[in-house]
Design a protein that fits this description.
Elements (H helix, E strand, L loop, with lengths): L1 E10 L5 E10 L4 E6 L5 H9 L6 E9 L2 E2 L5 H9 L2 E4 L13 H13 L3 H14 L16 H14 L4 E5 L7 H18 L2 E5 L3 H7 L2 E6 L2 E7 H6 L4 H20 L8
The structure holds adenosine-5'-triphosphate.
The site of adenosine-5'-triphosphate has 14 residues, from helix 1.
Family: Belongs to the ABC transporter superfamily.
Pfam family, one: ABC_tran
Subcellular location: Cell inner membrane
Length: 268
């Protein structure tokens, strides 16, 4: 479903290479976790695939979603695919919705526009998708500020599902959330994968989140992919020093967390 080949991103004016020679393939229903330090190029890889690079940057190589190379796709084609084929979940759920309108009004408007549904059918679809995300129908009457960040993230996921996204690109979807909301959002992603076989790319610096979902891992450092492979292999036998560091820190964090909870045995 997704195939990136030798993708590089340059600063158009200076020619400076920011992301260098990244490639991966992702089959339908699988999940890729992209991890790495801040500024390592994780977001730019996603933006290349979404056809959404900032104007100052230019991509080379190939970034296929199905048979469409998003690097060369016409802006209208890329926009259409972002509306339906590819869903995006961003770090700040509040910014995804208009604070002046209820979630229901925004769902209905989007479904009428993108799916050509009547008002009633759009409402019914909204309620159905919210229920799939374990959210009550009353959310339709709520304004964004009345919901927690985790609930808003789940609303975003509900929206992308209703638009029949085949691929969901989630960039740090849990970073801005507290622990309980983080867990609920990750659980929703997990259920999506199991029940609906949605293909997922999750970007995170939280190895725990990635470990819960990903089949494959891509480790980025300084704009380069330093390690890639099956999640189990990367976690259990990391080859690159930077990946070892990430895994060690993750283990230390988990142990600290369990000690804080008064738990006995630590495991990652
Ligand atoms: N519009 C832009 N113009 C110039 N450089 C940019 C632009 N956008 C991003 N960059 C640079 O590209 C590099 C990679 O950025 P990117 O946002 O992909 O990192 P990231 O790994 O997603 O980081 P984070 O985890 O902090 O989101 C950074 O050094 C950043 O400064």
């Amino acid at each position: 479903m997704v195939r990136l080949e030798q993708v590089s991103v340059r600063h158009a004016a200076t020619g400076r290479v920011i992301v260098s020679d990244v490639g991966f393939t992702l089959a339908r229903g699988r999940c890729l976790g992209i991890v790495g330090e801040s500024g390592s190029g994780k977001t730019l890889i996603c933006r290349t695939l979404l056809g959404l690079l900032p104007p100052a940057l230019a991509a080379e190589g190939q970034a296929f979603f199905g048979d469409i190379d998003m690097i060369r796709a016409a802006p209208e084609t890329a926009r259409r695919l972002r509306g339906t084929g590819i869903g995006t979940i961003l770090q700040q759920p509040m910014s995804a919705f208009d604070p002046l309108y209820t979630l229901g009004a925004q769902f209905v408007e989007t479904f009428r526009d993108k799916l050509g549904l009547s008002k009633e059918a759009a409402r019914a679809l909204g309620r159905e998708k919210l229920a799939q995300m374990n959210l009550p129908a009353t959310v339709m009457r709520s304004y964004p500020h009345q919901l927690s960040g985790g609930m808003l993230q789940r609303c975003m996921i509900a929206l992308t599902l209703a638009l029949k996204a085949k691929l969901i690109v989630a960039d740090e979807p849990t970073t801005a959330l507290d622990a309980q909301n983080q867990f609920q959002v990750l659980e929703c992603f997990r259920q999506l994968r199991e029940r609906l076989h949605v293909t997922l790319i999750i970007v995170s610096h939280d190895l725990g989140a990635v470990q819960m979902l990903a089949d494959h891992i891509l480790v980025m450092e300084g704009g380069r992919c330093v390690e890639a492979g099956e999640a189990k292999t990367v976690f259990n036998a990391p080859q690159h020093e930077y990946t070892r560091y990430l895994v060690r820190t993750r283990l230390a964090l988990t142990r600290g967390f369990q000690r804080a909870l008064g738990g006995g045995h630590a495991s990652a």
